Amino acid sequence: MKSFLITGGLGFIGSNFIRLLLEQTDCEKIVNLDKETYAGNPENLADFESDPRYVFSLGDICDAKLVSDLLEKYQPDALVNFAAESHVDRSIDGPEPFVQTNVVGTLKLLESFNHYYTAQSEDRKKSIRFLHVSTDEVYGSLSSDDPAFSETTPYAPNSPYSASKAGADHLVRAYFHTFGLPVLTTNCSNNYGPYQFPEKLIPLVILNAKEGKSLPIYGDGSNVRDWLHVEDHCSAILEVLKRGRVGDTYCIGGSSERTNLQVIDAICGQLDKAHPEGAPHENLKTFVKDRPGHDRRYAIDCTKIEKELGWSAKYGFEEGVVKTVDWYLSNLEWCENVTSGKYQRERLGAS
Fold this sequence. Notes:
The protein is of the alpha/beta class. The protein has one domain: NAD(P)-binding Rossmann-like Domain (Rossmann fold). The chain is about 45% helix and about 15% strand. The chain has a 7-stranded parallel sheet, with helices on both faces. The chain has a 3-stranded mixed sheet with strand order 7-9-11. Strands 8-12 form a two-stranded parallel sheet. Helix 1 (about 10-25) packs across helix 8. The radius of gyration is 20 Å and the shape is globular. The two termini are about 35 Å apart.
């Protein structure tokens, strides 16, 4: 694959995936379609703005004409859909944008891609793919002794966010079975790493602790997540694109289950070493009222992608946390611009 249309490529995972393509593959063209919402930060890819292989297009995946025009103009080998509203708390406060972007937006992409795909020669069709990036949250919640999620786990979403992603997953599946569209779906566990918007747990804890602010912990802090470094996630997506079986789903996890308390303690321990001012940072922990429908545990069984594609996570959680804390402490200007909304104000001022 030489050319890609990436949707949501200014976001956390999308921008890391584009970095992987530009830095570690021989790709020839990447078109990044992004709406530049609060979580879509142009600074994430600022160092590639002059790269002739990289093209940015400001727009919404719900704009079917724009998507069709981009497909027609650039003739990509793959469309990779990262575009999504993805924060559970925001979906509780206002579910409608999640349905609009995650369900309707995915439908619009599928429709446009189906028209594009149908017009290709039979030989060309063999190399074209549509990859939809989803979440383990569509599977619901696990008890402490339940087996981990796998590709055959029934869907049981418990939040508006996860329900909207489940709806999108079903549409992708339907376009394979009904129209023969060459789709792939990945369901990943909780990501962490560079360029993550600071409302998410790990960057929030890093930045709050550095500034001496409280570290809010939902409920009793015993909710469990399987933590996956974003670079591992991106490498898995690339393997699925290259060698995954059309129509299949692949679960991607870090094999690193941790309670929220364990995650926060690990971050505080690393900050005590890297930023000793204010140590011990664990004294900043504050327990707050649990959010509605808070799933107890997520875990991913990676057997399928490991056996079929030979992929495995490179980073263990301990190594990944050290790497992540160091990145945020070394990129405080980026953090300041994100938390202050400076990048959004600059865009609005230029428009």
